[in-house]
Design brief:
This protein is of the alpha/beta class. It has helices at residues 5-9, 11-23, 32-44, 103-120, 140-146, 149-152, 206-223, 262-282, 302-316, 334-340, 371-385; strands spanning 48-53, 57-64, 70-76, 125-132, 157-165, 172-173, 177-180, 182-191, 195-196, 231-239, 246-247, 250-259, 286-295, 298-300, 321-322, 343-351. The protein has two domains: 5-180 and 297-385, Aminopeptidase (3-Layer(aba) Sandwich); 182-295, Alpha-Beta Plaits (2-Layer Sandwich), CATH 3.30.70.360. The strands form four sheets. It has an eight-stranded mixed sheet, sandwiched between helices.
Length: 391
Amino acid sequence: MKIEPLIAAAAAELTALRRDIHAHPELGFEEERTSTIVAQKLKEWGCEVTTGIGKTGVVGTIRVGNNPRAIGLRADMDALPMDELNTFDHRSQHKGRMHACGHDGHTAMLLGAAKYLSATRNFDGTVHLIFQPAEEGRGGAEAMVKDGLFQKFPCEIIFGMHNRPKLDVGKFAIRSGPQMAGGGLFDIHITGKGAHGARPESGIDPVIIATQIISALQSVVSRNVAALDSAVISVTQMHSGDAYNVIPQEAVLRGTIRAFKKETMALIKERIETISSGIAQTLGGSAKADVRIAFPPLVNDKDAVKFIADVAEEIVGAENMNREGPFVMASEDFSYMLEQVPGAFINIGNGGGEGGCEVHNPSYDFNDEALALGSTLWARVVEKRLAKDPR
């Protein structure tokens, strides 16, 4: 690997930053401490700094020369609402909050690039370093876009990066076109007729309605979605009743949907609404489905993919740059930014050893060995895209 020496020299500082952020996780739109650290470091290194974009978002800007070209690099900052099981010194100090997806590492990698680019300024143009809040299901990317992100900080191209457990450190993966699924959430409120548990004939059981709806929803992907498309419907919650001998009046189902096409997302939304209402009515009750599309599919621009893959290949070698990376059924709200500006989202290996478990796991930890590599990739992307001599 061809790690930039100045970045390698800062590895201990980046590790300390990453571990400090890990120990003090903050949920979406609550990243006050993290945003303050990011802004302070950017100012310390001579970047222009704008705070409060999308509530707790931060944008650092480095301008060199008068060339109007501009590039955006994005990292997410928020943690997840879960307890950490790790026992190392930098484990979460806050119960019910944990950096279980590596956003602490993503933030540190972009800060590493910021420090290097501010010091060397070996490019011609503008780089906007975008530190995004609330990626974990709360719409931070959309909030930044609606807050005028690309009007205030115009970019001709934008890139994001996410760690990938089970992919060795020193490797990257990406693919053109759809790479990550769009995601949606749903709530189905079912109304029956309460009754004594010993006299079900006198009521309308919403639990029975709920079970029939759950069963029917499992047929949507196999019977309504085209066989060559990929989609998921998962009912993840069912709530009803409080007593052993009472047939409840109401039940609630909640869950998630995923697909790689907007059209498929719309189809699933319609089927959930129709099936829920129809089954409830057939069994004498009623149901109202609220289906919300949280994220569009993440679609990489093919030219942007080739560019960042070529840069990564120069750093780690062709054998470590997978240009046909896997489809990922999880969602990523960087997709909102990619709907506004062409770009690409690349995966960096987090390793498969200790701490290499999947994201959103209480034993997860970002692998500090990947920090300097990620920062180097960001630095080289800027220097190549905004080269002083573009021959």
